[in-house]
Amino acid sequence: xxxxxxxxxxxxxxxxxxxxxxxxxxxxxxxxxxxxxxxxxxxxxxxxxxxxxxxxxxxxxxxxxxxxxxxxxxxxxxxxxxxxxxxxxxxxxxxxxxxxxxxxxxxxxxxxxxxxxxxxxxxxxxxxxxxxxxxxxxxxxxxxxxxxxxxxxxxxxxxxxxxxxxxxxxxxxxxxxxxxxxxxxxxxxxxxxxxxxxxxxxxxxxxxxxx
Length: 211
Fold this sequence. Notes:
This protein has helices spanning 4-15, 28-42, 50-59, 71-81, 91-102, 115-123, 129-143, 149-164, 179-190, 193-208. The longest helix has 16 residues, at 149-164. The mean pLDDT is 94. The chain contains ten helices and no strands.
């Protein structure tokens, strides 16, 4: 029997703390959400090993240490090269987890290769207005500091329409997930620019007024 408690302690002690160095949208709260949601989704599949799910989730964004652009591939490489995992997993299982980390990104043009990749990709979709707008605004402020408040709003709206709109690139992979309804709810909000501006204004004030 695989020691899931021992594995979880290892992840909490050695892996999760690495998220403290990332941007505000990818810190411990985010990785803990993905780990918990992944375990929740795994319960729907009798042949899915929850230990593989939680490890893939814990490593999935570690590649941000080398930048955002190819972070999913770097995450897979980090997981593959972490020989500490061999005390619990076979090389074949480690490869499955690495592929799941590589396949989680919403902008990927290919479907995840395994059920583990689909679970991880679905778990990574935090579809609620506050989280989506907050993360997008943090990114905008960090990467486009020359934009004023209106410019940030316009950039954010364009990005969210491209990602979450009816023709957006975000795809859902697990029908048992609640994300389908959450996506519909968010699309209704996204179509109401006045409501989106109110949400944006509140979060912008919270973020920019912090000392």
